[in-house]
């Protein structure tokens, strides 16, 4: 504070020196990209078989208060029907893009389907729905996190506004860690594919412990998250 008092009002210290160095750096152009010698840890789950990766995912899902149900492709719609039992069609919103014809038929008959043509009406419908059903793009074993890419017929509000979020997760889409998930996403960037407008990393139901470190579920999103793990290999 003493040094600050001694400075004259409006007096800028070392102005010319700073501008001179800045000008020299600009003239040098953009520095060459440096290779990062420090690489992300990638060997934690390398020795695990696919079945073990699935167990790690389920264990971490339990930790974040997400329920997991195992099934196969043939019985998937029966499991979904049991989850949605006694819930009317207009209370179930789905956002699924898949080549599973049986699943497509079920969502068409049993749910309101999210479509980009409905615009803001999708948000209103999601807010009034009891159940939102989505299809996972990537799942992270290390944290029980699911990755949802919002593109084409896959809307973001479906996973955020309904009371219950049901995520269909093909077993083949489980990867060990965030590193592998980012490699998949980066691969899409490098291929110059149409990139999703939003990539959501969702770890269980809404959790908050802001007030006195007391965990409260459902403050900012779904009260309940159900992972439906599908044997697809």
Number of helices: 8
How many domains is the backbone divided into? 1
Give me the secondary-structure category. alpha/beta
Ends distance: 68 Å
User: What's the CATH architecture?
Assistant: 3-Layer(aba) Sandwich
Which homologous superfamily in CATH is the superfamily?
NagB/RpiA/CoA transferase-like
Q: Can you give the mean pLDDT?
A: 83
Proportion in helices: 25-40%
Major sheet:
6 strands, parallel
Percentage beta strand: 15-25%
What is the ordering of alpha helices and beta strands? Answer: HHHEHEHEHEEEHEEHEEEE
CATH class: Alpha Beta
- Under CATH, the topology is which? Rossmann fold
Strand runs, count: 12
Our Rg estimate from Cα atoms comes to 24 Å
Record the strand order, biggest sheet. 1-12-7-4-2-3
Quick description:
The protein has 233 residues and is α/β, with parallel strands linked by helices. The chain contains eight helices and twelve strands. The chain has helices at 2-6, 15-27, 50-63, 76-83, 101-110, 121-128, 157-160, 178-190; strands spanning 66-72, 92-95, 112-113, 131-135, 138-140, 145-150, 164-170, 174-175, 198-202, 207-208, 216-217, 224-231.
Describe the structure.
The chain is α/β, with parallel strands linked by helices. It has a single domain, classed as NagB/RpiA/CoA transferase-like (Rossmann fold, 3-Layer(aba) Sandwich), CATH 3.40.50. 32% of the residues lie in helices and 23% in strands. It is built from eight helices and twelve strands. It has helices at 2-6, 15-27, 50-63, 76-83, 101-110, 121-128, 157-160, 178-190, and strands spanning 66-72, 92-95, 112-113, 131-135, 138-140, 145-150, 164-170, 174-175, 198-202, 207-208, 216-217, 224-231. The strands form three sheets. A six-stranded parallel sheet has the order 1-12-7-4-2-3. It is globular, with a radius of gyration of 24 Å. The N and C termini lie far apart (68 Å).
